[in-house]
Specification:
single chain, about 140 residues
Length: about 140
Amino acid sequence: MKTGCFKRLFNAIAGEPYHIVNLCFAIIIVLIFVYSAVFSPEKNNYPVVCLHEKITGQPCFSCGLSHSFSLILQGKIGEANRWNRYGFRVFLFFAAQLVFRVNFTRLSIKYPDARKQLIIYDSVASLLVFAISFAPFIANIISGF
């Protein structure tokens, strides 16, 4: 890629709030995956701890997600499932979102006249993937009321 291509890409992203939001989300998701790859369930060296468990002594519904993500990245799906049975669903949500962020941004740059339609498709697809991935968490919150 030539310098001119980078400049055009930067200008296309920087000039559109939708692209900036997508870039921010993509960076956050990549950081989540890096966090999961760097810290290890074997060493239990995660710097972020569950506040609910620290305060109450009881695990919460999302306990074990960091361990689960790390194990998924290592290809140990069965073991990841033992840490949190919903870990794979949540991991797939983040993986899908990364794909969505990259592809919807790419399509929005390539077809600027279709940007509004693409944002609608993006929103609907993201909402559906969220609802499917987080349904057990949402049900747990609702049942607690």
